[in-house]
Amino acid sequence: MEIDVGPELAPSAAGHAPKQAAPGAPESDPASGTAHHQSEPARVLTQMVPWAAVERRGRRVVVTGAAGFIGSHLAETLLRRGEQVTALDRAVGHPDVLSDLQQPAGNPRWRAQRTELALDDLDDLLVDVDTVFHLAAVPGVRDSWDARFADYAASNVVGTHRLLGACERAGVRRLVLASSSSVYGQVSGLSCEQDPAAPVSPYGVTKLAAEQLCLVHAARADTDLEVVVLRYFTVYGPRQRRDMAISRVLRAALSRPAAGPQFQLYGDGSQRREFTYIDDVVTATIAAGVVPLPAGVVVNIGGGSTASMRDVLDLAEEITGRPVPVLSTGRRPGDVEATGADLTRARALLGYRPSVDLREGMTRHATWLAGTCETLATPGVSTRSGLVRASGSQP
Ligand SMILES: NC(=O)c1ccc[n+]([C@@H]2O[C@H](COP(=O)([O-])OP(=O)(O)OC[C@H]3O[C@@H](n4cnc5c(N)ncnc54)[C@H](O)[C@@H]3O)[C@@H](O)[C@H]2O)c1
Prior knowledge:
By secondary structure, the protein is an alpha/beta fold. 30% of the residues lie in helices and 16% in strands. It has 9 helices and 15 strands. It has helices at 39-48, 69-80, 149-170, 202-219, 245-254, 278-290, 309-320, 344-350, 358-372, and strands at 28-29, 34-35, 60-64, 84-89, 110-114, 131-134, 174-180, 226-232, 235-236, 263-266, 272-274, 276-277, 296-301, 306-308, 326-329. Strand 1 (28-29) and strand 2 form a beta hairpin. It starts with 27 loop residues before the first strand and ends in a 23-residue tail after the last helix. The structure holds nicotinamide-adenine-dinucleotide (NAD). Residues 65, 67-71, 89-91, 94, 115-118, 135-139, 155, 159, 178, 180, 207, 232, 234-235, 241 line the site of nicotinamide-adenine-dinucleotide.
């Protein structure tokens, strides 16, 4: 997939934005480290830097969590763009992802290293690195209540802190953190970056802690490290984690025989989510690595609209042409009623516009799923809308 960041995206001329706010950029919000008046910086930055600079290739970049769902897509895309990619992950393999962090087809610009961020020495891995995309974390709300919390804390908090220190020592220019909408907690309406963070799960607490660590490191006067915190809103698409709703609902629909696994619906299906297609997340994340920005900034990355779980169920049935067997269970602690992203800042600072809507994204996801497993049926026959197979490319 080619990244089209759009002409309004402000590129980084030399790859080094000033440590203080970019010239003409708005005042920082002391509470969040973020910026107000979001339309202004895009205009200023677009005027400041030549567009061609965003096409700069060959930087040395690190992707942590590169064996995971989002990290693997990001690492592969960066490699295709010509970057020198060091892929870090502690995973010993993931059924849907990069062949166990192996070097893709002997590409000399690809290096993979099995690394535990909470324990291993990181300094040697960051020599001459320009940008670190930090996606490694233990994700998911539900497991974070139990004994696994120690791992959440070690990976998401201690691992992030160790990585930030190593980045500072190595002179890394910028770290982009994958944070989460879960830092907002229970909300009504769209969430803005300036809104108070009030997570309602231990997972959300660890992601907020990671954000705050990034912002305090970025605020240090004695380092040049910039950080960009991206708050992703429910990401889906090929290789999505199997514990996530769209993956589960499509697997339930496509399983053969039809009376295969049931889709566990937590609550009555009225809960709404902003779903974001993987390609849009990758585009935004790469942009966050190159665009000149204030040294510590928080940006929402969403899909541009919300849908209820009932909507998702209906769409899954339309796309696959098969019924979804549903097992209704109660709400789980930490599940929020709704998420929704105000994307004003993402548009202004990153030139971000989500390009794949839920119907198209789920169709691509279903087509990929059907191709990965022989126990899954091929989508393509619609019972209701005439909607058939993916029209988009396979990532
Ligand atoms: N998937 C979503 O909808 C979503 C939404 C919001 C935020 N995020 C964030 O995006 C990032 C990626 O999420 P994902 O869905 O791809 O998850 P994932 O589980 O597929 O990938 C995370 C990867 O991080 C690795 N990892 C975890 N702890 C590590 C450690 N201590 N050292 C080294 N590697 C470690 C894991 O092995 C895994 O491969 C995470 O930071 C997550 O919090 C994801």
